[in-house]
Amino acid sequence: MELFSIKELDLANKQVFIRCDFNVPMDEFGNITDDRRIRSAVATINFCLDQDCSIILASHFGRPKGEFDPKYSLEGVGKRLHQLLKKDIIMAKDVVGDDAISKSKALNTSEILLLENLRFEKGETKNDAELSKKLADMADFYINDAFGVSHRAHASVEGITSHFDEDHKAAGFLLQKEIQFFSTLMKRPVRPFAAIVGGSKVSGKLEALVNLLPRVDKVLVGGGMAFTFLKQLGYDVGNSLVEDDLLEEAQKIMDEARRLGVKFYLPVDVVAAQNFAEDSVSKVCSAQEIPAGWMGLDIGPATVRLYREVLTDVQTVLWNGPMGVYEWDRFARGSNKIAHFVADSYATTVVGGGDTADLVQRIGLDDEMTFISTGGGASLELLEGKILPGVKALISKED
Ligand code: AMP
């Protein structure tokens, strides 16, 4: 799949609206704790500056209730942009109010205006036509570089695209890269191709699993979702996370894997805890010997060794979902070990956004991966085989 490229647009001296994803994590004092998403937008912004554009940046941040709330202001993001770009950032006090409109009209070449949090407008998440029109009217060109929100049909992501013809809209460099990686992964992976799938529940990854099966050579399952499969195989998994309504579905996936010749791996041992708590009594036991009432919260050392073995010959690895409750050190070992194997391998390694990206960053392995997605929900929808609403209007060529 190819998207309209920013490089093909005649941007010189024009006003450009760039939809970014500046939805960064902040601590309780309002400090940005991870600015990867802001840094990821710099390439596109600099490209527009090189073309002497005037630039309007827009993003959502957190979940305000459709009205101004200082807690969700983009002011902190503006400061970080100023540091990264070494340029003054003009802050608008609103999104499409008098302040934003007058500042956007007065914008000169190479100046940057940052609108306030798009979700201060109720119409943003409702894909409101009037709001998309007001946003579109601010600029000559529209660039989407907000991969993390491109699975949402929101006014600044989807609605706005209808106000620009194909010579006036395109994907920014970040969106382009994300779509390209996932598209190659799903259509032309270098084999053997392994998917490591974890996280809490089967239900969250069911569609992705079903869509991945015909494309991969191996699936390695970890995290809470493994227990639904193990229970279906007849193991007593104690109080581990199980979705009883998906037992049949789990069987279908295992049958389909067998039919397709896909090697389907489940944990052979786990770190089990007496209860769901960071300081709970815990022990390593085989997947067949989880004590009654206990729950598996991480994959065990034998599974770690097995998965390392299974990953030695692969050329492509996709990893989505932690192997255990990685937020708690005592149940993070499985995820950390797998992260090291993946990072050390010579394979192309693609890490889904959200928790998996978070855990890889926590242990400082982000530079060792081929690609880490900036969008958890968006990358999952790509794995499910969906076309993202924010990307649809930017497709120049289907595969
Ligand atoms: P997801 O959003 O589905 O990718 O799930 C990520 C969450 O799954 C993380 O917050 C983990 O703490 C949680 N998780 C991973 N393994 C387990 C487990 N064995 N039991 C309960 N929760 C788990």
Q: Would you tell me the structural class of the helices and strands?
A: alpha/beta
DSSP helical segment count: 13
Q: Give, in order, the helices and strands.
A: EEHEHEHEHEEHEHEHHEEEEHEHEHEHHE
Using the CA coordinates, give the radius of gyration: 23 Å
Task: Provide the CATH topology of the largest domain.
Answer: Rossmann fold
Using brief descriptors, characterize the structure shown:
alpha/beta; 399 residues; 2 domains; Rossmann fold; six-stranded parallel beta sheet; binds adenosine monophosphate; 13 helices
Describe this structure in words.
There is one protein chain. This protein is α/β, with parallel strands linked by helices and 399 residues long. It has two domains: 2-177, Phosphoglycerate kinase, N-terminal domain (Rossmann fold, 3-Layer(aba) Sandwich), CATH 3.40.50.1260; 189-383, Rossmann fold (3-Layer(aba) Sandwich). It is built from 13 helices and 17 strands. The protein has a six-stranded parallel sheet, with helices on both faces. A six-stranded parallel sheet has the order 10-9-8-14-15-16, with helices on both faces. A three-stranded antiparallel sheet has the order 12-11-13. Helix 7 crosses helix 8. The chain is elongated and about 70 Å long. Bound molecules: adenosine monophosphate. Adenosine monophosphate is lined by residues 199-201, 204, 223-224, 241, 296-297, 321-322, 324-325, 327, 355.
